[in-house]
Amino acid sequence: MTQTLSTRTVCCKLSLDADAVTAIRATAEAFNAAATYCASVAWEEHIINKNKLHHVVYGSTRVNYGLGAQLACCARDKAAEAVRAARAKDHATCPTFKPDSAIRYDARTYRLMSLDRVSLNTLTGRVVGHMVLGAFQRRYLYDTSWKVGGAELVQRDGQFYLHMTQTKASPKPDEPTGFLGVDLGIVNLAADSEGETYSGADVQRVRERRFQHRQRLQTANTRRARWRLRKNARKESRFQRDVNHCISKALVQKARTARKALAVEDLTKIRERVTVRRAQRRARHSWAFRQLRSFLAYKAAQAGVVLVAVDPRNTSRTCAVCGYCEKANRPDRSHFRCLSCGHTAAADTNAAVNIASRAASQTAYCAASPSGEGASTSPPVLAVGI
Ligand SMILES: [Zn+2]
Fold first, then answer.
1. pLDDT, tens only, 69-101
2. Checking DSSP bridges between strand 147-156 and strand 159-169, what pairing results, if any?
3. 177 within 8 A of 370, measured Cβ to Cβ
4. Residues within 5 Å of ion ligand 1, judged at the Cβ atom
């Protein structure tokens, strides 16, 4: 295993005086106009390389938009990355940036100062703002084992927030002694191969109530209702984020204590894979599983836990004991009953065991695995339907 770099972002509210706000607003406008210009050049001339783009746009960015040397480079980088992302996603049009879009800062354009102050580059010189820090942000910022990198200055509802990136080398992962399989499911958001489940009924109840409320608001469709919908959408995303943090933290801690690697489904095909009835589709598709998966990945890296992604095909319809694969093994979404050997289990636990076995059979660790999970129970992949 090679050593990787962990990245995290600390978000702080900024307290700024009126002059600073004016300076930053003007800077954001110029910065994003410059970034839009850089993006259009990169797009039309098919430039992806930042250095190459630099030679083409640097002079005119500084003259036409009044940006300092470093901010001009940050605008160019923002544009180059957006163009690269748009190309990768086959977008038909060039990315553009709104005047109140984020300003990107690097080590030379912003500086953290004592007493929770921060100094930011603007068109009219540096301004100093005060970071409004809670205990959580303070703990993150004052942890010197993390190196502070670039930042994005974001405006939302007239308020400024600084999103600072921190990096740290991840610890070298321990050689795992087995696998903890994790199934991301419908009945439970997550279930592991030892039969433990994470956030089922409680979360479901909250979400059901919110869904009903959302439907009522959508039907009403008044100005007030639309405002409330936007507010609720943010609330829902905070809720999901919080639950995802808790689940991923618990799973990583469990794997670490048992010195196991985490085995998860390769999520690239998650929506195609799951064939659920219409009524259940909402439950599956409206949860931020990708976020949960990415939280698992970064928390595992920080804790020195190996994470293995496996092909999830048929993991929910294959018997974890005898390997018999048949759609009818799973009569409904929550139960598994093998038609061949009679093994019964919770559907998501059975799937999690299969995921653990698959990880064991696809990695070199299975030979060293004293727990014996792995090759012997590896299910044959028999495609029965999709
Ligand atoms: Zn069986």
1. 889 899 999 999 899 888 888 888 888 999 999
2. antiparallel
3. yes
4. 319, 321-322, 324, 338, 340-341, 343
